[in-house]
Amino acid sequence: MKFQKKATLAALFVAMAAGSMVAGAQTIRIANQGDALSMDPHSLNESLQLSVTSNVYEPLVGRNKDLSVAPALATAWKQTAPTVWRFELRKGVLFHDGTPFTADDVVFSFGRMKGEGSDMKATNSDIKQVRKIDDHTVEIETVAPQPILPDVITTSFIMSKKWCETNQAVMPVDRRKGIENAASFRANGTGPFRLRERQPNVRSVFVRNGSYWGKIEGNVSEVVFTPISNDATRVAALLSGEVDVMEPVPVQDIDRVNSGANTRAVTGPELRTIFLGMDQKRDELLYSNVKGKNPFKDKRVRQAFYQAIDIEGIKKTVMRGASNPSALMVGPGINGFQPETKRLPYDVEAAKKLMVEAGYPNGFEVSMNCPNDRYVNDGRICQTVAANLSRINVKINLQAETKGTYFPKVLRRDTSFYMLGWTPTTYDSHNALNALMICPDEKGGAGQFNLGAYCNPKLDELTKKVLVETDKAKRDAMIKEAFDLHSADIGHLPLHQQALAWGVNKNVKLVQMADNFMYFKWMSINK
């Protein structure tokens, strides 16, 4: 096994070295536990994919280092009516193929994001129309007043209309169906880096965009991005100097990385909440030995699962203290977070009693879908949850798999019980309410990631009111009421917010943001 591991490392390092010869000291080598599943910025609303593609594509409104909104492809914006925002577009911007950026690309891109196959429907579900005023001005009309629209569209990346039409990529690839097109493997954005090479699940190479409209603070001219799923191999690559940046650092290896001669761990809180969801729509679960009914439609069963999970045990033994147990679907740092809300107590006996009351004294079997290369210790968390639930006679048939097969499966709702993580890209609770908790609207996009189809019309009504309310006190009260409803229903099983941990060579300077986006333009390396 030792020989096999050395051989694997050697092969990996040869591949990475081959990609770093061109740019010498200005090449930075990044390793992640997974890969961006596509270069299409509208195909998967997942933080890693959005983070990677955000270096190639840009939105109208971006983020500063402190997460405040910043001009990107729009230089200014204002509300001209309660439901209309006007955006002045940046002039002189070129796509990587030399095509000028205009309002036509904005109109096209927002239409693409609302189209079939798009995973960005939920983000743009409240947009009614995008209109071209002239080549460098657009108006976005919303279905109701939306005071936080600039925050909402910070991950709505703009593509070239001409390039998409030429390359038969007018519609996004549909990851649920395994469909690919030219935008899966090639890219043509306006961002500070261009995609030079794409080998899915092997490596992607990005090079500095010499015609970029803005300032690139860092000195990096080439980025070699390599997925390394094995934790030990990823840590070894950092410690040996074969990669310059890697994430995540396994919580058990943070001290080891900090003790390395040339490495350090950059840690901080993350805005992502990890939770479990259950199919509450089907009359019979797809993957369970219970026939003729759905146990998850019974609140007592959902509450039994909740109270059988030893969240403090997960924090101590699995997360090594690097998690914040959560009672809500959002955490600290998200507008509308309610710090006074407490989790239901861990109580196995109470959980057993609930199962008996619900008619399942002997428990039941159900399959659980989890990724094993997406969130911090995701596979181990699911194993621990399965062990916890065995105490109430629930047998979990755990299906832990790489995110490349996991996401297409759960996103098409081919699941009975699943793990998911969510970072509200607006840093506002409405994002989580609208994407995760509102009754799913297949056509409009609301509830797109409410994969178990939890539904409470009163919560829906509040979510729509939260969107348009401008009085902060009233808005926060509505958010609290909505969260209280969701908690009382046991709509999902919130687990925790995980912590960020990036392994970094001491010669590297970078910016770690609480949304876990990694921007190449702010990276510098001195060798």
Descriptive overview:
With 527 residues, this protein is of the alpha+beta class. 29% of the residues lie in helices and 22% in strands. It is built from 16 helices and 19 strands.
What does the secondary structure layout of this molecule look like, with pairings?
Layout: H1 2-20, E1 27-32, H2 47-53, E2 61-63, E3 69-71, E4 74-81, E5 84-89, H3 103-113, E6 127-134, E7 137-142, H4 149-152, H5 161-166, H6 182-185, E8 193-199, E9 203-208, E10 222-227, H7 231-239, E11 245-247, H8 254-259, E12 263-278, H9 299-308, H10 311-318, E13 323-325, H11 348-357, E14 365-371, H12 378-390, E15 395-401, H13 403-411, E16 417-422, H14 429-437, H15 457-468, H16 472-489, E17 493-505, E18 508-509, E19 524-525
Parallel strand pairs: 1-10, 1-11, 14-15
Antiparallel strand pairs: 2-3, 4-5, 5-7, 6-7, 8-9, 9-10, 11-17, 12-16, 12-17, 13-17, 18-19
Helix pairs in contact: 9-11, 14-15, 14-16, 15-16
Relevant terms:
527 residues, alpha+beta, 9-stranded mixed sheet, 4-stranded antiparallel sheet, 19 strands, globular
